[in-house]
Design brief:
It comes from Marivibrio halodurans. One of its GO terms (cellular component) is ATP-binding cassette (ABC) transporter complex. One of its GO terms (biological process) is transmembrane transport. It is found in: Cell membrane. By secondary structure, the chain is an all-alpha fold. The chain has a single domain, classed as Orthogonal Bundle (ABC transporter involved in vitamin B12 uptake, BtuC), CATH 1.10.3470.10. It contains twelve helices and no strands. Helix 1 runs antiparallel to helix 9 and helix 10 packs parallel to helix 12.
């Protein structure tokens, strides 16, 4: 008989995986893995601002991640530095500033281990509700953006010529990413959410004949990773968040030995 806390963790983790999988496909197609890391690193700064202004941490993380995404869009318009250099600057600057702010508030006690690696076994019914309502909003937004965002991923110039406004689609996609980071932070931690975005999508890419199929398979592989990771953590008494990522990695490595589908979805 499984304990209620384990069932809550399973429900919340699957909700995050289903939300992250389709978004992760665009991260893989657009080669934006480091962007996910940058957004995750900014979460600590969001937590610091949340304590400073006494607001909900999830709102603080979302606000800072959204500002980082918009700052990247503005900086990319200046051809002085490459995108990876800009991402490196933003990632380390926000992380360092967050640490400095936390150190400057001695009345604040933050469990950095839980923040970095999550505490999925401690989720409440309210957390599950937030994940599923927020996840539904994120997936609805992605469905609305799907056609212009996919067109901009394949050929930005053609998408612009067709009036699909690729820059707007990219900005809105980054805001969706900020929402996912904020929702998933408490569950798997800021350093591991990027793995849940990328690894299931990379696994699905080997078998999916279409972009839509890849999005569905990424959600399935993500949910399977959560289930295997949590049950493995229960049996081996290992940390839950890292165990989920280990399970996702094991699924990916196993997929390399399986003949892929008709065509690998390449973007």
């Amino acid at each position: 008989m499984l304990e209620p806390f384990f069932l809550r963790a399973l429900a919340a983790g699957i909700g995050v995986a289903v939300m992250a999988g389709p978004l992760g496909c665009f991260i893989v197609w657009r080669r934006m893995a480091y962007f996910g890391d940058t957004m995750a690193h900014s979460a600590l700064l969001g937590i610091a601002f949340a304590f400073l202004f006494e607001i909900e941490p999830m709102l603080g993380v979302f606000a800072v991640a959204a500002l980082v995404a918009l700052a990247l869009l503005l900086l990319q318009r200046r051809p002085t530095l490459s995108t990876d250099a800009l991402l490196g600057i933003l990632a380390h600057a926000t992380l360092a500033l967050g640490l400095v702010m936390v150190a400057a508030m001695p009345w604040v006690r933050i469990d950095l281990t839980a923040l970095l690696f999550g505490d999925i076994l401690a989720v409440s019914h309210a957390d599950i509700l937030a994940v599923y309502l927020g996840g539904a909003a994120v997936l609805a937004g992605l469905a609305w953006l799907w056609r212009p965002l996919l067109a901009a991923t394949v050929n930005p110039e053609l998408a612009a010529a067709e009036g699909l406004r690729p820059e707007r689609s990219r900005a809105l996609f980054m805001l969706l990413m900020a929402g996912v980071i904020a929702l998933a932070m408490k569950l798997v931690g800021v350093l591991l959410i990027t793995a849940l975005l990328i690894i299931p999508a990379a696994t699905a890419r080997r078998f999916a004949p279409t972009p839509e199929a890849m999005a569905g398979l990424a959600a399935v592989f993500g949910a399977l990773s959560v289930a295997l990771g949590l049950f493995g953590s229960l049996e081996a008494d290992t940390p839950s968040g890292p165990s989920i990522v280990v399970a996702a990695t094991a699924i990916f490595l196993t997929s390399l030995a399986i003949p892929r589908g008709r065509a690998e979805t390449g973007r």
